[in-house]
Amino acid sequence: MDIRKTFRRWSAYQQTVRELGSLDNRQLSDLGISRTDINRVARDHVSSL
User: Fold this and answer.
1) Of 1, 28, 4, nearest in space to 16 by CA
2) Which top-rank group of organisms is this from (predicted)?
3) Residues 3, 38, 41, CA angle at the centre, nearest 5°?
4) What does the alpha-carbon distance between residue 1 and residue 21 come to, in Å, rounded to a whole number?
5) In this structure, are residues 23 and 38 in contact, taking their beta carbons and an 8 Å threshold?
6) HSE of 37 in the Cβ direction (CA atoms, 13 Å)?
7) pTM score > 0.85 for this model?
8) CA-CA distance, 48 to 45, in Å (whole number)?
């Protein structure tokens, strides 16, 4: 894996965690996820890049 792709994935992971982490529990629930799902959702997101 190329270093640029690795950095893009890491950056996207961090951004996703940060954005989802800023939502309150109700907003997360509206999206169908819980606070404990944030890291999994972020990992799933970057694996699709």
Assistant:
1) 28
2) Bacteria
3) 60
4) 28
5) no
6) 11
7) yes
8) 6
Which pLDDT score, from 0 to 100, does residue 45 have? 94
| Contact between residue 42 and residue 18 where contact means Cβ atoms under 8 Å apart | no
Query: What's the domain range around 35?
Result: 3-47
Which pLDDT score, from 0 to 100, does residue 26 have?
98
Number of domains in the chain: 1
Instruction: Mark 17-39 as b/e (b = at least 16 C-beta within 10 Å).
Output: beebeeeeeeebeeeeeeeeebe
- Structure confidence by residue, pLDDT tens digits, 19-43: 999 999 999 999 999 999 999 999 9
